[in-house]
Protein 1
Amino acid sequence: MTFQVDMGLDAGGASVPIDLEELLATRLLVQGNSGSGKSHLLRRLLERSAGQVQQIIIDPEGDFVTLGEKYGHIAIAAADYSVAEVARFGQRIREHRTSVVLDLEGLEMEGQMRCAAAFLGALFDAPREHWYPALVVVDEAQVFAPSMGAEVTEEVRRASLGAMTNLMCRGRKRGLAGIIATQRLAKLAKNVAAEASNFLMGRTFLDIDMARAADLLGMERRQAEQIRDLPRGTFLALGPAVCRRPIAIKVGSVETGSRGGGPVLTPLPQPQASDMRQFLFAEMEEPVRPPPPPPRAAPAEYVLDQIETVPTSEPARDVPKRDPEELARVVTDVLRAIVEDRDSSTRPAAVLYQDFQVRCRMVGVHPAPLSSSGFSRRLAAARAGIFDGLDGDWAEAIAIAHDLPDEMLGCFLLIARAAREGLPAPTDEEIAHTYGTSSLGRARRVIGYIEGRNLLVTRVDLSGKRSLTIPALGWTTAAADAV
């Protein structure tokens, strides 16, 4: 199956399409100075291919968030979340084939590069069963794949450049079709630009950029001058997904626009000079009020749930309904099997969730009964030896620990279980095992962190034995050696 994306008209007035299936296999590079129409071109491509393929957009300026109003893209404001949460979004997006816009506006360059590297890394590292085709659009690609040292730490530069290189060099086998746009070819890493087989070159003025554009289009150096004369919104196109010889395309209209819009001349106000002077030099009678605080960002779990529930273009499958008690038994059995695996204690929850999905599928349960976030909490409880009663006997303990990170919840529940049953306090080794580490020092830091959140009180008696109390519940463990 193929699909033709109408991009606009050539010099003779004929429609010029891009073959979407060929584009997925061969990638695309767009270049043009600021104001040449790159964003307009990308918007045309995204609008005309919406509903045909998953679209993932890394947007440094927040220009593409308006796609969500008409085409259902989920806008994720990266400034409101941690890098780890952005990576979790990337994992969930590949699984559920949701079209998203990662809005990096509001972040400094280093923050944008960190988020983009984590997000692209999560897309790239998705399990094989989630290698669905997707267009991955990166605007202002020279920020994320600079040809020379950027004004960021070397660690961040390497991570961002590595993620972009993986996208363009190795992403095709994973279904990821890179579409990168840049203002300056000279500022874009050559090994990233060289992997594209399709090119759309817009107006540019610097000799070095015109020369590189002409080389990519297979034009002679003396022909490069015509790139300088291209009108706004017109691009020279070449590549297997477009045409075999360079042609000029006048990009067609779009249905959405950026939040800011382009610069438009508006008439200046025409007050009397005396009125303006009085206005400018008048004393401020009212104190300047601070601007209202920005609205609170949606919690990461809410965004993850949105990603799961957005409908995809896939036909619905008939999934047999199962008894809730049967599903609960399956979840308990699979969690017990995962926890009993020796290697599972050192593997992160995101990796084990993939194992959980496979094990559920092996017993005939698909899709998995737990979301990724729900699995993380159930896994933490299972590592503490708690498989049942999370919504009953243990609901109060889980409720007071709602602010703890998922990886620490298991340690808290391990202590809570011992305290509730009057058992000796868990040793540092047991806490470290539940946390997924072999470091006893880290286990002690976990206890210190939980205690700092006023969820735990540690007492050491004269013999050096430790007991742990959960004040909110009134539960206390028996005293025991910490090691």
Note: Residues 154-170 form the longest helix (17 residues).
Protein 2
Amino acid sequence: MNLDVTSIRAQYPAFSDDSVWLDAPAGTQMPQSVIDAIADAYRAGIGNLHGAFPASARSDAIVAEARQAVADLVGGSPDGVVFGPNMTTLTYRFAATLAKTWGPGDEIVLSTLDHDANLRPWVQAAEAAGATVRYAELEVPSGELPAEQYRHLVGPRTRLVAVTAASNILGTMPDLPRIAEITRAAGALLFVDGVHATPHMPVDMVALGADFWATSAYKWNAPHVGAIVAAPALLAELHPDKLLPSPETGPERFETGTLPLADLAGVRAAVDYLAGLDPTAEGSRRERLLLSMAAVREYEQGELAHLLQGLAALPAVRRIGAPARSTATVYFTVDGRTPQQVAEYLAGRKINAWYGHSYCWEATAALGIRDQGSAVRVGIYHYTSRSDTDRLLAALAELAS
């Protein structure tokens, strides 16, 4: 493992206030290099795309570099990177586009583990097309999503399977290659919500079997930009609603309006930052990303083990779900306190943590906690220090006593 967390933390201006940042599943902080890249784009001057003057050419270069950066991050092609304001908006767009070819008798398969952004757009598109929705069920109380159930859900009329690569509340990481194998055998497409997984592991969307990989840049140190990545040949088969003057080819025809150009400069800088987390990594940016993100995974899993050991020593703290393979994300309750009360208590001690359903609407219902305020969520990120987790454990011990 080659992460120097002290050096990493020194790159974050936000860390000057002594807060404990355990809210990363809802969005991460920006290192100085990303902040500088955004400011530099504005300082240099940017114009709208495809013009004849230098500021426009700078914008064209920013977009091209951002597409290449995201492609390097997830193992896709830059010509298959579609940008948008967020993953939810993009998923609605792709759902509406794909559903143009659906009709009565067609089926889509979703999961009750997923964030609602990978459920509701597909449900609504299927209803409009007259297609049938089937569900893979979250296993209670483990929080697992057994892959073999897809053998009974996916069939000759299945057009699409949508599933998360990691739950943003439980951390559960389903067996994507197995789900992809079943999906592919039926001739269906696999849409993977990679929003929570991408910041915590090396990603190879092709090896994982994803036809579409969705990610949100603000979950990995960049501004609020969403992206969906697919093979260019697959995108070429789709026909989104668009303005008549908009491009007829490439990812641009899926992008409505003007892109956030300076923010895309931050996206490229964030990918460069991630590629440099392991200072010993060499090779192309893609190669350095794979090594750095493997180091991230190892570090975060070590800190997760420490946190879980500490929580297990607190009888009043109850973890929700216990998946065998997960991101370093923990969902829990404290006896005698509502999740909101716990989060407010932690906030009073400068510990940032979220509470509530976190848009996992079906999952929290299946777990039987949604109507009770759900639970408290903390997430370990590669900038989380041991002292951060120990401050959380100390605060929870104090609260429970």
Note: The two ends are 37 Å apart (CA to CA).
Protein 3
Amino acid sequence: MDIRILDLDGTLPAQPPIARRLAEGKARRHDLTALGPKLRLWSRSRDYDAFADGWRDLAEGSSPTLTLFGSGDFHHLTAAFIEAAAGPLTVVHFDNHPDWCRTFPRRHCGGWVNEALAMPHVRRVITLGPCSEDLVRPDRKGANLAALSEGSLVVLPWRHEPSQIRVPVAAGKGHEVGDGEIRWRNLCAQDWGGVLDDLLSAIPTRRVWITIDKDVLGPDEALTNWDQGELPLACVEAAIRHLARECEIVGADICGDYNPAPYRQPFKSLEAFLDQRDRPRGGDAAAINARTNERLIATFEECFA
């Protein structure tokens, strides 16, 4: 497996598990710090396209690739990774947020799933682990409920109460509908082995892309810029192994490192102030995230040994 470190915000190169792999030639660093502020949180089309063009050149002939790229503020870059990957493809997405909103600008970390769903080689996106308020009245927050109804998007929260809605939504693999509510199939109430078997049955393709935002984890296993969920890291590791045995993982990416860098763009500053106030605080973010990155990287290395 080819390991790429996209250095957008300075959070990754000094982490011991990454520094060691860089020194041993087991990973490659790509200095994108000059482009990082333009891409962070959301990006204009010209800046995103500049990144995507560069990524296509990097990704050519180097599959499977594990890419780490810092803060979850950059999660919309995953759409560029997926676009360059071979299909047909199912995206397995671990995140405390469904990232399914219709946003402006379009290239936004809260809406990249819609970009992936629009790609002809992507058959389905399966999102596991959300606990966030994004699922509260989703019809009022620009959620892509049409994809949920059509089945091209499956959302499997770790723990969430039913979501009230005022628009018609069809039942699907991860939810039931009735009395003006989406009733979620909460993963915390199920045996994880059974969850993984059901996950495989929901994947319509041989090829799979895995994307992990560490804000899906609790604050004892990650500290991020965003509000966090409760999915145990051990469940993510078990899912990676299960998918590697039964599917062809064509690539994977990891974000969700903590980096509270100031935003140069005033609208980004305001959005970060409004959306990131409730993030977990306390603890040594760099050490906690490094330990989790080590476990995730090691799990992928084990699967591709």
Note: The first strand starts at residue 2 and ends at 7.
